[in-house]
Amino acid sequence: MIRHVEVRSIREGVYILWYLGYTDLASLYASGSERELLRFNGAINRLIEQILTKNDQSEIVLNFIKNQEMYRKYRVDETIASWFSQDEKSSVFFWLYLLKKFRDQQLVDEILSLAGNSYHDKKIVHDKNNSKVIVNELPIRTPDNPKKCFMAGLYILDLLRFSPDKLQRTLDEIKIDYSHIRDLRRKDFAWFTDAGPEDVKWVWKQFNGHPNLLNKIKKWDLSESLLSQAIPLLYYLWDEREDTKALYLNTLRKRYANMKHRKKVADKAPVNIRISENAKKTLVKLEKRFNRNRADVIEYLIEKTWAELNQKN
Questions:
Q1: CA distance 171 to 211
Q2: pTM for this model (two decimals)
C-alpha cells in the first residue's frame, strides 16, 4: 500500500487538504512560498501517517491521489489571471469580487457538491434566518496585502473547478468591471485619497453601520492594512440602485468633510469679528485663490503678517 505522497506546489497541497477537510493545515501553508514545499510535503506525509496509524483509514491515500488528479485537471494557470497582479487595487478587487460571488448560493452549492464528506461534517454552517449554506474556511482567510489577495483569489478559482470557458468568462467579467470603476474611483473618492489611518477607520465604521451595504462582507475579518484600498471597491461591489448609491456616497462625503473640520478646529479658539463689505469680498476672493476655507485663510494671513513683522524687527 502507498504510504508516501508528494505535491508539486503549495497550491496543489492546499487544494487537496482543503477538499479532504484539513483546512487548518491548508491555511497554515497557503500564504507560503515554494521554498517551503519540502516542509509542506513533510507535514502532509506526517498527517497521513498519523491517520493510518490511529484509524487504519487506508482510503486517505486513495482520496488524496483522487483529489490530486482533480487539481491537475482543473488547476488555474496563474498566467491567465496575471492581469490582476500587475496593480495593487486590481489584486484586491480580484479577491473581493470572487469572495463576494463565492458567498452566493449558486457557487457555494457548486463547491459543496464536489467536497468530500469529511468537509461536509466539519465545515458547514446553516444560517437559520435564510437557510443558506455559508462556508467559513478558505485557504487564505484574511489576506493583509495585495499579493496575498491575488493568491486568495486563485485559491477560490481552484476550488470552484470551472471549465476553461467558464473560467475565462469569469475573469473577463472581473476585468471589465474593474476597468469600468477604475476611473470612477479616482473621481468619486477623490476626497478619500489622503485619508489617514483614523479617517479610514471612521469611513469603515460608517460602512459597517449601513444595514445592507456590506451585507455578508461585515462577517469577514478584513485586514486593516487593506481598508483604504478595499473601501472604494466594496462600494462598487454593493448590489444596489445607482441613484441610491450616489446619494449615500454624497452624504458620506459631506459627513466626512464635517468630521475632518471638527477634528481640525477642536483645539482652536473661536473669534468673532465684523469687517467691511469690501473686506469680505476680498476675503472671498482669497478663499477661492488659496482653495481654503475662511478660518484657514484668516489664520494664514495672521501667521504670515506676524512672521513678516518679526523679520523686520
A1: 30
A2: 0.78
**Contacting residues for 121 by C-beta, under 8 A, at least 6 apart:** 21
Which of 304, 298, 306 has its CA nearest to residue 280?
298
Alpha helices of 161-293 — where are they, by DSSP H?
164-188, 197-209, 227-237, 242-265, 277-290
How is residue 24 written as a grid cell?
Answer: 487548518
Distance CA 234, CA 226 (A): 11
Provide the Cα torsion 172, 177, 183, 186; round to 10°: -130
pLDDT in tens, 22-58: 988 999 999 988 899 999 999 999 999 888 887 666 7
**Residue 95 buriedness (CB in 10 A; 0-12 / 13-18 / 19+):** buried
Ordered by start, the domain boundaries in the chain are 10-74, 78-263, 277-312
Q: How many CB atoms lie within 10 A of CB 178?
A: 21
Averaging pLDDT over each range in 114-123, 126-135, 237-246, which range is the top one? 237-246
